[in-house]
Structures are given as C-alpha cells and as structure tokens.
C-alpha cells in the first residue's frame, strides 16, 4: 500500500535557495540559517525522494538532473502559493452608489455597490463575505467599528432647460414640482425624511426608482426634480445637461462612514486600504474639486 507524503514547505524553500545560489553557504546567508541546518535539510529531502540533488564540483556544488526537474515543479508551486497570498490582500468593499464613481480603479480593492438591504450588508460583514463598508448607513452593534470618512451636501438636479426652474430654486418651487425619488427606506423613512433638518411637506412623486443613477437619468429627460449628492451631480452635469441647485429645504450633510468588524481594527492591510480611501477623498476640498469638473 502506498502512502502519500506531505512535503515540508520549509524543505522546498531551502532547496530552492540552494538551487538558485548553487552554494550551501550563500543559501544559508539568504535564509538566515546555519550552513549545517541547510545541509541537513537537503539530505532530508534527498532521503524522502531517494535521489541525489547536488554533487560536489571543485569547491562548489552542481545540481543534478533530478534537482533541475524538481526546481521547475517547486517554482510553479511557490508561485501559486504567492498568488494565493496576494489575492487575500485584495479587500472586498461595499460602497454607496453615490460615491462609488470617485473610488473605482484603486489597487487592492474590489468595490461592489452596497446592497439595498442593510441587514444583508451587516450579515455579510459578520460572515466575512465583505471586509469593509463605505456608506451613509449606521448600526448600534459593539461588534462593528464606525468611523466618519467624508461629508458633502445634497443638491437638487433637474433638466437644464426646465420650463419653470431657471437661475434659482425656492422652497415653494421645490414643493410645487414633481419628484423622482430613490425607493430605498431606512427605519421606515426615505432618504429625504432621514436627513431633513426641518419638518417636510409631502412631495408629488412622479417616479420611484431603485438607483440614484436612474434618478438623474429620468430628471434629465423630464420636468421632475431629483435629490443627489453634490459630487454625483457634478459627475454627470455636462453629459446629461443637468442644472444643479442648492436644496431650499434645510438638510444634514451626507455623512459617509467606514463600517467594519472589530477583528480588522489593527489588521495592516485593512488599515492601509482605509487610509488609501481617506487619502483619495481628502486630497481636495470637495468631490467637485477632486473630479476637476
């Protein structure tokens, strides 16, 4: 009966060092081991495969044909291991749609749009299906760290050639017109109700859509108003021929936060990615400046 042997990875690394250096002395210096330890490791590997790997040549050594064959296979295996380790250094990040446009393309980060279900978002954080959330949502749970990252105002957008809105937008104008709204709700309230700093009146809803991209698309081809972040409006102003106005209703700023599990608070890679995102968002006074629009 044959028994499959499990190869000691340390033997593989030691062998590759000796093979590449063609010297026990140089390999021991590279590995920060003693020369006897390196020699003993090679003898152990030779015993396991029942083949000689190196022969003496003058004052040095030379690899045998078996060593050349093993080196090719071992290098492939080590490259595979290194690739797998590097893949783990890519963090999975849920990001609010309205801010995602400014962050895509960053290295070592796999961005996805935040799911509409908050319970699913936090469940994925707990199950380590996602490493970090950047969104305006929040939660009271001692298992999570919540850090403020970036704030910006919300603005009203409409078609540039809107027949009744030109140059300025009053509160009376705002409530008189119809609205395209994002259908997401938090604790029974929509986004407008959540961030309002004053009592709000009922708005005339022309359309309820499932994404903020849909909000600006529909308002750009009609007479309704929409409410989005300033950076998002600036990003699409020229392409969609939008007009942008300060919201005449007093609103809180959109406050984007990092949300992540406490297990990552001191994780080096996680800290690096959080800092990279904060650096990207903090390089300019506002997203409008950052987007250079």
Automatic annotation (TrEMBL):
PROSITE patterns recorded: HTH_LYSR (PS50931)
Domain HTH lysR-type: 7-64
Record keywords: DNA-binding, Transcription, Transcription regulation
InterPro entries, per the entry: LysR-type_TF (IPR050389), LysR_HTH_N (IPR000847), LysR_subst-bd (IPR005119), WH-like_DNA-bd_sf (IPR036388), WH_DNA-bd_sf (IPR036390)
Family, per entry: Belongs to the LysR transcriptional regulatory family.
UniProt protein name: LysR family transcriptional regulator
